[in-house]
Structure formats: structure tokens, C-alpha cells
Design goal:
purine biosynthesis, 8-stranded antiparallel β-sheet, Phosphorylase Kinase, domain 1, D-amino Acid Aminotransferase, Chain A, domain 1, ligase, alpha+beta, SAICAR_synt/ADE2_N, 289 residues
Length: 289
């Protein structure tokens, strides 16, 4: 067996192999938060993210996406022969990335709650007064963020996004994002899961908008168990928010180097990822039968 080529790009949690007209995206077990990568890994995390994302892409097959192949044995040589890529990698179309994260929020939590407490707004739009933390919003809210090559991604207004990419493309992205969120939230609600918020990314391929990156994973979404949901509190998360919550309380200033994570937290994250995988895949399999 030939040696696996070095990744063309090493991201925070994914390795990317550039094949010319296509890419291989390999989800590692690395973990990051606040744009900083930690020394510890969460064993099996990459396979969980890859599986969940692939199943959601399949479920939303009416929305064009970048997936070419999910079976590593069908990848081009030499990649198909390397077990380290198995179950954690996808072959995708190379496209022009749209440099905005299309965030949709169904509940008032996280940075959205912080903004509301301070200014009474969400994504720079006024909300009704008197809302509580984690309260369900009157309707899903589109709250975009711009992707920065250095530093943190930046929450922006709809107007700024519209000005930078044009009204037509903006309308397409907003409509697709809210539709995807709404359909996913309705589906998982049947399994006792609340989809608090999530983010989608899109690209342009052959002059058409396609869905890219990962979708509705516990790294890109905030999931709550309905059984633990209480308005006015921060419900326990079933996703990477567990790590963020720990770090917010740790006193770390969010500047590298990253602190070491306790083994108990790694175990908790591993269990949470496995639980949300099992519940989501069961939900999706029942829907497809």
C-alpha cells in the first residue's frame, strides 16, 4: 500500500485533500472551540460528524449539494486504499465558497441571547421585550455571520450580507436556510429533540447554489433534549456547546495556547456525540421507511 498523501490543507478539525476538480474532506477527532484547537482529541468524533452529515445530505436530496461519494472504497487511488479515511471522509465537488455562514436560530440562546440582553435585538433587528433565555422565537430567525480567514467569524446584519453578495443571492440563501432548519426541526421534534440553532454553508458550482461543508451535526448545531428544556435556563446540550460552556466558566481568555481538557469532559463529549448520533439516525431511518 502506498503512503497516504499529506493533506493539502489542515483545518481546525478537518483535513482536506485537493484532487483537482474535487476534494476529500476527512473529519478528524480533533476538537476546537473559539477558533482554537485543543491538544486532546475526542475519540470517534470525526466518524460521528461524517455519518450524521452524510445522512442529512441524503435526507435533503432535493437540495443540490457537493457530495460525490461517501464510500471510501470508491474514492480515487491512492485514497481508497487507506483505512484511516474510512467512515470519516467524503469526496465532494470543488466549488466557489460563499464566505457567509447562514445561521438560523429557533430559540434565544448563546450569542443571540447575549445580544438580546444587551440591545434588545437579534442580528441587529428589534425583538419583543421580555423574552427569556432559551425561549422559542416567534419564527426562525436568519442571523448570518461572515467567515474571516483570521480571528473569529463575525455576526453581521442581513443588510450587510445583502450588500456584499447581492439581493438575489441573499434571498436564495436565506430562503434555503430557513427551509432546511424548519424541516429538520420538525423532524427531530418527533424524537424529543429541539434544534435550537444551526448553520449552513453554500457554494457556487456550475453557476448554481449548492449546499456544502457539513450539515446539522453536533459541531454545527445546538441540540437540546425536550425532556430537559426549561425556559429561562441554559438547557443541557447534546453537542459541542458542552465544551464551550466548560470553557466559559474556566476563566480561559480564549487566546492560544488552549488549556488541557479534563478526561471527564472528553468522556462527556464522547457520550453526548454518540447519543445525538443514535437518536438522529434512528429518527432519519424511520422517516425514510
Amino acid at each position: 500500500m502506498s503512503e497516504l498523501p499529506r493533506p493539502s490543507y489542515i483545518g481546525k478539525v478537518r483535513d482536506v485533500y485537493d484532487l483537482g476538480n474535487s476534494l476529500i474532506l476527512s473529519s478528524t477527532d480533533r476538537v476546537s472551540a473559539f477558533d482554537v484547537v485543543f491538544r486532546q482529541i475526542v475519540p470517534g468524533k470525526g466518524k460521528v460528524l461524517n455519518k450524521i452529515s452524510a445522512e442529512w445530505f441524503s435526507y435533503f436530496k432535493d437540495i443540490p449539494n457537493h457530495i460525490i461519494e461517501t464510500d471510501v472504497s470508491k474514492f480515487p487511488s491512492p485514497y481508497k486504499d487507506h483505512p484511516e479515511l474510512k467512515d470519516r471522509s467524503v469526496l465532494v465537488k470543488k466549488c466557489k465558497r460563499i464566505d457567509f455562514e447562514c445561521v438560523v436560530r429557533g430559540y434565544l440562546s448563546g450569542s443571540g441571547w447575549k445580544e438580546y440582553k444587551q440591545d434588545g435585538t437579534l442580528a441587529f433587528k428589534k425583538l419583543p421585550t421580555g423574552l427569556k433565555e432559551s425561549e422559542k422565537l416567534p419564527e426562525p430567525s436568519f442571523t448570518p455571520a461572515i467567515k474571516n480567514d483570521t480571528g473569529h467569524d463575525e455576526n453581521v446584519s442581513e443588510e450587510r450580507m445583502k450588500n456584499e453578495i447581492g439581493s438575489e443571492l441573499f434571498s436564495i440563501l436565506k430562503e434555503k436556510s430557513i427551509s432546511l432548519y424548519t424541516r429538520a426541526a420538525e423532524l427531530v421534534a418527533g424524537a424529543g429533540i429541539l434544534l435550537c440553532d444551526t448553520k449552513f454553508e453554500f457554494g457556487i458550482s456550475d453557476d448554481k447554489v449548492i449546499l456544502i461543508d457539513e450539515i446539522l451535526t453536533p459541531d454545527s448545531s445546538r441540540y437540546w433534549a425536550e425532556s430537559t428544556y426549561v425556559i429561562g435556563t441554559t438547557p443541557p446540550s447534546m453537542d459541542k456547546q458542552i465544551l464551550r460552556n466548560y470553557l466559559e466558566k474556566s476563566g480561559w481568555n480564549k487566546v492560544p495556547p488552549a488549556p488541557d481538557l479534563p478526561e471527564s469532559l472528553v468522556v462527556e463529549l464522547q457520550a453526548a456525540y454518540k447519543e445525538i448520533q443514535d437518536r438522529l439516525l434512528k429518527c432519519l431511518s424511520q422517516e425514510s421507511t
